[in-house]
Each structure stands twice: as structure tokens, then as C-alpha cells.
Amino acid sequence: MASSAAMRDLQRELESKANDLRKLQKDIAKNHEIRKKYTVQLGENELVLKELDLLSEDANVYKLIGPVLVKQDLAEANANVRKRIEYISAELKRLDATLQDMEDKQNSKKEGIMKVQQKIQVLQAGKAKV
Amino acid sequence: MATARGKGTVTSLSSTFPAEEARKAADLVNHTINEKRSELDNLRSFVADNTNLINLVQRLPDELHHHIQVPFGKAAFFPGRLVHTNEFLVLLGEGYFADRTAKQTVDILKRRGQTLESHVDSVKAVIKDLKAEASFFYRTAEEAAEGLVEIREELSDDEDSEGSQEKEDAASEPEVGIGSSAAVLDDEEYARIMSRLDELEKEELEEEEEDEDTEDHRDVTNGEDFNNSEQSEVQHHTKVLSDSISLPNDADKSIHTYLNLQPNHKDDCSRGKDILQKFVERPMEEDNVPSVVKTSFPSESRSKSEVYVPAPKPEVGNQLSRQVKTDSLKAFTGSIIERTDNLQISPDREPINQPSNSQPSKPVSRFKMQRRGV
């Protein structure tokens, strides 16, 4: 009886841990997606910056804000793009850090699950003997 | 599944990589390959669009205005006229636009095309990698299904020593080869290898001799005075040694000349003579060393010769006759004069010892080998 109770406990533990792991994996996937988006944006911004650098001083530059095109100073546009790139880079770094953190957590969770599974196996083996 | 027997273990591949799992992994990789392929197709369509757009933009300023169908709403068109054909408002990305001429627009589009191309290339590389991975997985699955086993054996110590023994044997073999190479006369490649070997031997000896000779060298540098016969003997001895071997510059030169000569001298006999020349020339240059010096040799040279030449006397006698023979082959004065001089002065042992003494151990061994070869 006692062994079956312990077994039930262990199985419950395993289930909760598996759920945690699933959640973590979902988070990681989400993180990956966000990261991908940011990388694309970074690439686009870098392209824009390159083109803006190539423009002559007196070129007309517009920014699309909502439904209207607003004329902008070239220098201003340049500064804006640069700032945006900086922001995205920082964001990417942050995402990397959290991703690393989550992966570590995931690994530890996996190990925990393995341990619980082993325990269950041992219990089952004991049961079979008895 | 693993069976441990003695030194090695035999593991069937299917126990570590079940065929089912391997196949699954391969399928997974194939799936990603397909995803990447669709990405690649997408990129290719972008590239095509871009080139089309470039063509269009290049053509537009050809005319002052174009007659076009203007889209109105979703389904309707009405005829219109396109004016200002050389003015473009180009979207740079991120909501930024710029007024550009057709030419400038084409430049921008071309740059964009280049980035697209690089994207295409990178995706292609990724697909290639994935394909290799997939093929590996499939092969693993196949092998596991066939029942391939992995055998691991640890290399024990005695096996290792055996291996080294074999290596030593293998290393000693080429030396024998040098001796018997008299048979292989016109092999220039071989000669080059041999000369390289000789060079290495000489360098080795150089290092060995350097240690022994450092004290003697000091003597040489200190004084040219030949007051003491013993000292001069030492000097002569070291000069010979250093000239032929240990002095870096001179030795290098002699080696190089030797190397240059090497391919020309195809028969071993002349080669031996050549070496002899190198070694014996030096005493000649050492302007007439007194004969007394030679007699004082045994004290030191005997002991040295014992170290260097473990070979019995008949062999040495053979050497002598060989030298005479080589001299007769080519009119080479240096060695013959030295030799006869020695012979006259002292009974058999000293002159025999002297050359072998002046020569380090390796060249002597070469003679030995020569004899073996002949």
C-alpha cells in the first residue's frame, strides 16, 4: 500500500514537472520568434541606414506616420534610424540572455524528470519482485 | 547488448541508435529542409520581382508620359496618364521614403538585389548542411537496421611497445637502404632523399659534437701557437671536426655543395669519395701539420675511435683500399697525399684511426653500409 502511495506521489510529481517543462519550452519558442522578428527589423534598419548614408544632403526624406507622409530632415532621420538600431541591438542582447536562462532552466527540469522516472522504475522493479 | 570480452567491447549500433529513432530524426531534418526550401523559393520570387522592377524603372524615364490603366478600388480600372516619369518616391524600409530619380532608384534596387542574393546563398548553404545531416541519419538508420556493431578495443601497453619496436625497425630500414642503394644508381629522387637524410644526420652529429668540442673550440680561438704538440694535435683534430661538421657556416656550405653534387654523382663509389673529399680536404688546408702530431694521436684518438668505430680492423683496411681505388678512379690529390703521408710516418694503426677519428660516427657507418652494399 505504502509503495503504491509513493508511486502515486511520484507520478504526480512527474506530471507537474512535465507541465513546467512544457511551459518553459513554449516560452522558449515564443522567445525565438520574437528574436527572429527583431533580427529581421535590425537587418531592415541597417539597410535603411546604408541608403540614408548614400543620400545627398538636400534629398527629400519622408516618414510614414499612420496614413500620412511627413517630411523629415535627413540628419534627423539618420539619427532616428541609428537610435532604433541601438535599441534593437540592446533588445536582442536581452533576449539572448533570457533565452540562455530559460534553456538552463529547461535542462535542469529535464534532469529532474529523468530522476523521477528512474525512481518510478525502481519502485516498479521492487513491486515486481514482491 | 554490450558484451565485454577481454580488452574490447562490442556494441550493436541499434542499441545506441535505434533504427526507428534515427529514421525519425532524419524525417525531422527533412521537414526543416522542406521549410528552408519554401523560404528559398520565396526569396527567389523576391529576386525575380526586384529584377522586373529594375527593368521597369529603367524604362520609365524613356518617355515623358505613359498611358496606363489606373486601378480604382479593387476591381475597376480607368485610363490615365503617367507623368513625372523620372521622379520616384522610394520606400527605404521602416516607413522611411526618399525622393529619387530613376537612376538612383535603380542603384537602390540593385543594392537590395545583392542583399537578397546573399540571403539566397546563405539559405542554400543551410539546406546543404541539412541534407548532409539527413543523409547521415538515414545511413545510421540503415546500418542499425542491418545489425552493424561497434567494436572498441583499448590499446594495451605491451601492444604499444611492440608498435614502437616496429617503428624502430622501420626507421632502421632506410639506413640499410642507403647502403644497398648502390644497386639503384640512377634514381635522382632517391638520391635527393638520401642527401636529405645525410644532412639530417650531420645536423644531429653537429649537435652531439658541439657539446664535446666546446672546450676544444676555446683552444682554437685562443691561440695559433703550435708550441705544444699535444695542443696542436687537439687543434688539428677539432679543426677537422669543426670544419667538416660543427661550424655552422662552413658546415652548411659543405652540406650544400654536397647536396648540389649529389644528383650528379650517381654511383655510390663516387659519392663516398665525395664525402671523403669533404672530410679529408680540411687537413690539407691545415697547412702541413707536423708529423709529430700524428704520432701523438693515439693517446686521445684511440679512445675516441673506440667510441666511434666499433668495427673490426679488416673493415678499416677495406676502407683504405677503397680510398685508394676511388683515388685511382678520379685524380683526386687531397686524400692521397694525406694518406701516404700518414702511412709513411706511422705504422698501421694511427693513420687508420686518424680519418675515422676525424670523421664522426655516422659517415663511418656509411662506409660500413657501403661495404654491405658492395
TrEMBL record, chain A:
One of its GO terms (molecular function) is protein-folding chaperone binding. GO terms for biological process: chaperone-mediated protein complex assembly; protein folding; response to cold. Transmembrane segments: none annotated. GO terms for cellular component: cytoplasm; prefoldin complex. It holds the Pfam family Prefoldin_2. Gene3D superfamilies: 1.10.287.370. InterPro entries: PFD_beta-like, Prefoldin. The keyword Chaperone applies. Keywords: Chaperone. Belongs to the prefoldin subunit beta family. This is Prefoldin subunit 6.
From TrEMBL, chain B:
It comes from the Eukaryota. Residues 200-214 have a biased composition (Acidic residues). InterPro entries: Prefoldin, Prefoldin_subunit_alpha, RNA_pol_II_subunit5-mediator. Residues 154-184, 200-251, 286-322, 340-374 are annotated as: Disordered. Residues 353-362 have a biased composition (Polar residues). One of its GO terms (biological process) is response to cold. Coiled coil: none annotated. GO terms for cellular component: nucleus. Keywords: Nucleus. Pfam families: Prefoldin (PF02996). GO terms for molecular function: chromatin binding; phosphatase inhibitor activity; transcription corepressor activity. It is found in: Nucleus. Belongs to the RNA polymerase II subunit 5-mediating protein family. This is RNA polymerase II subunit 5-mediating protein homolog.
